[in-house]
Amino acid sequence: MSHSPTTDTDGEPPWKRSLRGVPIELVPIALLAAALRLFRLGSESYWLDEVVSVTLVTSNTPSELLVSVPGNDPHPPLYYLLLSGWAAIFGTSEVAARLLSALVGIATVLVLYALGRRLFDREVGAIAALFVAVSPFHIWYSQEVRMYNLLALLTALSFYWFVQLHRERPDEIGVRDDIVYVVSTVLLGYTHVFGLFAILAQNLYVFSRPVVRIAPRSRLTIRRWIALEGITALLLAPWLVRLFRRTMGASAGEPSNVSWIPLPTAETVSRTFAAYLGGYLLEESLPILVSLVVAGCLVLALSSGRVTAEGDRRVAPINGRYTVVLWFVVPILVPIAISHAVAPIFADRYSIGASLAFFLLIAIGVRTISRPSLRYVVVGILLVGLVLPLPTYYQEDQKEQWREAAVDVESTVDGDDAVLVSRPFAEEPFSYYFDRPNVTVDQVDPEASDDEIRAAVDGHDDVWIVLSYVDSSTSQRILQAVADRPDYRGPVEERRYNEIAVFRFERTASDG
């Protein structure tokens, strides 16, 4: 019997056979994640931290990024090395540099789906991936030239291969799983210090199994795990030694590169959870209905035992719920404890890896609801809550607009004028965009005396003062120091560029 050319031997169209293995629900989620991360990617200028990233990779060789830069920058070198190679190929425009983070963000959604499906089922994986796809928190860092989305991706990859290590059939446990787990985890450790807390969560799972007695028996033996972690620690040793020295210095009161981080409180934790849901973009707090639904889903996730892994028999005998809870809790509570014992180190963006577990827990809670129609309602409410801040995110400037500020000053200033920028946070981003080498640009320290400020403008015509990250009293004192000079009038002009203030003082005609 002949077969129709439009079907295979099983009666399946060729296009279906070619896509077999790609879950149909993942396609729209991936497309949605891509659209939200690529939309208006280069519309805003770099802000301070992004300028730091771009400047580091353009002013240092790869060997310097690997050896020298980690001594001054608080973060490990992997992201900078990756960005350096990326910039060498695609350039350092806002779109080009941010595209790396956008692609990493899309990949994070895909890996989270695979992990949720591996630990539980397709529905949990799809719901968690959908929430992360539209999460303003993840979209924000998918459009920023920093390492935070890479931290999220490698955290998900490390946990995926951690689950793989527990596979039940001994003939499926091979060297490949060991190698890929170690590589992904080492890369995680070299991306951000908070990656170490994800590794700590994995160790707590393995070593607490005999104690808590809620994790099933596993083919991953303690001896094999210690060997894998020993190799991982050995490969991370250069960074761990440097991190240890820095921690000891901080505990002894030495200056720290993260001295801007405040001591975390209970309010810090609640703000972090709100940030995961995009609450920082709303003028008011999160809608009460969304907050209640999220809280209800988390309670269901922690209390119900309905969700089990689907019929993929390669799934490990691993307690998925316990794994996700540790993944969520450890990278938040341990850094907060360290913050109180040694020095503050907790910032919400550093916990972006834990936010993936947060969305997985919500997805688990949704999945425990027995009625499908009610599940759809809950997912709809949460999606509305997540999407609600996005118009504000896209329509309004979220970062300091250094490009616009520098270009405006550049278009008006002349060679006899002086530009004063506040230290330490305005000098680098302003200078990155300001391209008038014949114009004097001086730095004014917030602690500078009035006489020092006045001396900086001697012999110049108009004076431009660029202030950012300066409290109102300091800002007023700097402006008053120039206004008190009899040969200047003003400020005659004031411009605002989202957390940047630019003032112009005019030299009086009698002294011109």
From TrEMBL:
Coiled coil: none annotated. PANTHER family: MANNOSYLTRANSFERASE YKCB-RELATED (PTHR33908), MEMBRANE PROTEIN (PTHR33908:SF11). InterPro entries: LipidA_mod_glycosyltrf_83, RgtA/B/C-like. It comes from Natrinema salifodinae. Residues 75-169 form the Glycosyltransferase RgtA/B/C/D-like domain. This is Dolichyl-phosphate-mannose-protein mannosyltransferase. Pfam families: PMT_2. GO terms for cellular component: plasma membrane. Its main location: membrane.
